[in-house]
Amino acid sequence: MGHHDPDHVKKDLADIKSLGCEDIFLAAQENDFIYFKGKVEFFAKLAKDYGLNPVAIFWGALNLFGGGRSSQFLLEYPQAYQIKKTGQMASAGCYNNPSSRGYIKQMIDCIAALGFAGYFIDEPTLTECYCPSCAGMFEKMFSGSLWKADAVLINQFRKRCVIDYVQEISGYIKKNYPRVQTLCCLMPSDECLWEDISAMDCLDELGTDIYWVNEDIDVELMSAMINKLSSLCKSAGKRHHQWLQAWGVKKGRENRIKEQGEVFLKNNPDALYVWAYKGQIGTSETCEDPKAAWNAACEILKKAKQL
Known about the structure:
By secondary structure, the chain is an alpha/beta fold. It has helices spanning 6-18, 38-41, 43-49, 72-76, 98-113, 132-142, 151-176, 194-198, 222-236, 254-267, 290-306; strands spanning 23-28, 53-58, 81-83, 89-93, 118-122, 181-185, 205-208, 239-245, 271-275. α9 crosses α10 (254-267) and α10 packs parallel to α11 (290-306).
């Protein structure tokens, strides 16, 4: 989650490096580009000083991507909010709005200039938005009204919107900053998008996050999902990653972190990431016993480095 004081970050970086990690994600919120700017400005250099590959994720951007939703942009550009079918304003922004995409690109310009090695497109998913931007895109794609379309056509449209967003953002990076890695995570619920997005030339890496720690689902069922995405990525020449859950873990469920981790190790993705450092302590998504959860995650990280 980072910090605006570099002395705090150095301690965390040393700890993370000692685990054998190679990549580190900074969850940069919109406020970190405006009020707590030190967090973004010094992070990439410090990470590289510790031999870590710094990747930026815009956590909570547009009140849409990930947690920490507190969008400064939407306070100033309310026209970028999603609109429900009832006509009411939703609490999240719409990624189809050109102003929203322009804002994301401005933040990408910033992290690229500061030396971040990658940008992570975090869980883009289908929306239920009926804003003017969505209505305009639908009319352009299908020559009809979004408001009057049937559910099948609307679902097709929503899928194409996610694909279009990932294509535009990753394409923007590769056109302007070809050395910056482009990474994306699609949720298991968006498996229908995996094939199309894995095939994008402008995307370097694709993964998913099977967050089942608090669920009583047989972890062995993960293997089919992991192998499907791995196969798609291999066919398209992409790196394939998986996320290990260390956030929101209920007390007493920590062993499930290790059980899921063992399945990941058995299936051997190109990269294994953990969300988030120290069980995301101090946030609204903290584990109920963050120390126990983090210790479980660290066991898997150490095993991963021995493979």
